[in-house]
Amino acid sequence: MAEYVGALDQGTTSTRFMVFDHHGQVVAADQKEHEQIFPRPGWVEHDATEIWRRSQEVTDAALAKAGLSATDLAAVGITNQRETTVVWDSSTGQPIHNAIVWQDTRTDRICSDLAAVGGQDRFRHSTGLPIATYFSGPKIKWLLDNVAGARERAEAGELLFGNIDSWYIWNVTGGPNGGVHVTDVTNASRTLLMDLHSLQWDDTILATMGIPKAMLPEIRPSSQVYGEAVGTLAGVPVAGDLGDQQGALFGQTCFSVGEAKNTYGTGNFLLLNTGTTPVPSKSGLITGVAYKIGDQATTYMLEGSIAITGALVQWLRDNLKMIEASPEVETLARSVEDNGGIYFVPAFSGLFAPYWRSDARGVVCGLTRYVTAGHLARAVLEATAWQSKEVVDAMNADSGVELTSLKVDGGMVVNELLMQFQADILGVPVIRPTVAETTALGSAYAAGLAVGFWKEVEDLRANWGKDKQWDPGMDPARRDREYAMWKKAVTRTFGWVE
Questions:
Q1: Distance (Å, rounded) from C-alpha 393 to C-alpha 483?
Q2: Could you tell me the CA-to-CA distances from 307 to 17, 114, 132, 266, 315 in Å, in that order?
C-alpha cells in the first residue's frame, strides 16, 4: 500500500514538490525558482512553460532524494499562486502569451471601465470580490483584446484558460493527449467570474467581459479525484486542488468557524473560516470559498490580501543590493533599536485589503539624515506587520469575533524579530506550527482525503503541532502612537497614479 502523498506547490517565485507521510511530516522536498519578468512598470509575467518544466524537475528530484517512485504515492495534490492567468492552445499546449501574474496592474483601465457602471462592488454580490486588477477575469479579457487572433480562436473553442492549478493538472494528466481541464472552487472563486452561491460560472459577468465560456475549466471540489497522472507520476490519482492561501488554511487545520491563519510569503494573506454561509464584508475584505471536500457542504472564508510583504525583502536584496540573502534582513534590522521614525508603505502594485486602491504607489515617510540601512530594514519588516494589523482590524469588524491568537506560516515566519513585533502590535499570541510550510501540506491533505489515505478532516488535527509562540509585550500607548503614524503614511500613497 502506498504510504505517502505528494504535493506540487507552485508559488509566485518558485515551485516545489513535497512528499508527506501519514503524520503530515515532510519526507522529501525539492524546490526551484523561476524567472520574474517585468516588461513595463506595473507589469509582472511568468513563462508558463518554464513553470511546467520546473514542476517536472522538482517532482523527479524530490522522489529521487527519498528513493521513492510513483507507486509509493497514494495521490498528488496541487496548490498554486492564485489569479495568475494562462491562456493556451488546446491542441499544442502552447501558451499564447506569458502568464499574467496576480500582482500585475495592466488591467487598470479595464477595471475602471467595468466599475464605471455600478462601482467597484458591481459584481460583489455574486462573486464576493471587488473589481480589481488582482483577479483573473480582467486578465483574460486583456489577453483576448491584445493578442492577435486570440478572441476568434477562443470563440472557436481552440483556446483554454486556467489559473496555474488548471495549467498543471491539464499537463500532468496528459496535456493535448487527454489532459483534464478542471479547476477547484477556491481557484474559481478568485477569477471574478464564479457565483459564490451556485459555484458555477456567472453567465452575466462572462457576457459583460466578453469571455467565451467554452475556454473555462470545469469547476470541481477541492478534494476529489480529477484524473490520473502521466510521466514520472504515472498512475497516481491527481486528487487535490487548493489555491495557495486556502491550502495554508487547510494545512493549519482551521476547520472550525472563527479559526484563522496568516501566511507570510511574497504577499500576506489572512484567512478566517466563516462556516457554510458566505459572510459579506463591509470592511474591505474578500468573501471567498475556503474549501469543499467531495460532496460535503462548501466552507467559506473572509480574506485580507496584502500584495507586497516578502517581496519587499526581495526588493531590498535584488534592487537596492542592501543584503545578499533574504534572511540577512533580520540581522540588519536588529542593528538598530527602532525604525528611526520612518514608515515604508510598499504599494508597488497598488494597495489591496482593506483599501483596494490601484492608484496608490509605494512611499517611505519620515526620512531624515539620521536614518541608516538598519532603520530601512526594520521599516521593511514592520510594514508586513502593520499591513497585517489593518487586515485583522477589518476582520474583527466584519466577523464580530475578536481574534484571540494567530496561527502563522510561510517563509517569513522564521524571522523572529518580525514575529515578536507582530504579536506586540496585535496584542495577541502569534503561534508557529512545527510544519511551517502548510500550503503544500493542505493540498496533500485534500488529495489524501479524496482517496481515503486520511478518513476525515478531524483526523488531521492530531498532526498539527506548535513549534513556537510569541506573546505581546509592547506598551499599548506606544502601539497606538506608532499605528497612527503608519495610517498617516498609508494616506500618502493615495492618488499617485492619475
A1: 12
A2: 24, 22, 12, 8, 13
Predicted local distance difference test score (pLDDT) of residue 410: 86
Instruction: Give the tens place of pLDDT for each residue, 424-482.
Output: 999 999 999 887 778 999 999 999 999 999 998 888 988 888 899 999 999 999 999 99
- Euclidean distance between CA atoms 468 and 460, whole angstroms: 20
| Cα radius of gyration (the chain) | 21
Sheet with 99-100, edge to edge strand ranges: 45-46, 99-100, 85-89, 159-163
Which three cell numbers, joined as nine digits, stand for 207?
Answer: 457576457
Length of the chain: 498
For the segment 379-398, the average pLDDT, to the nearest whole number, is 93
Backbone angles phi, psi at 38, to 5 degrees: -125, 80
Residues paired with residue 18 on neighbouring β-strands, in sequence order: 7, 29
Burial 30-41 (b: 16+ CB within 10 A, else e): bbbebebeeeee
For residue 422, the SS3 value is helix
From 392, 399, 462, 473, select the one nearest 434 (Cα to Cα): 462
Span 244-280, pLDDT tens digits? 999 999 998 989 888 889 989 888 989 988 899 898 8
Task: Assess whether pLDDT exceeds 90 at residue 298.
Answer: yes
- How far apart (Å, rounded) are the C-alpha atoms in residues 69 and 324? 37
- Contact of 368 with 402, CB cutoff 8 Å: no
pLDDT confidence of residue 292: 96
For residue 120, the SS3 value is coil
d(CA 481, CA 341): 12
CA dist., res. 87 & res. 95, Å (int): 6
Give the burial class of 467: count Cβ atoms within 10 A of its Cβ; 0-12 exposed, 13-18 middle, 19 or more buried.
exposed
**Cα(83)–Cα(244) distance, integer angstroms:** 11
How many C-beta neighbours within 10 Å does residue 128 have?
A: 27
Gap between the Cα atoms of 486 and 491, Å rounded: 9
The answer on pLDDT for 179 being more than 80 is yes
Q: Report the mean per-residue pLDDT for the chain.
A: 94
What are the residues facing 268 on neighbouring strands?
A: 264, 306
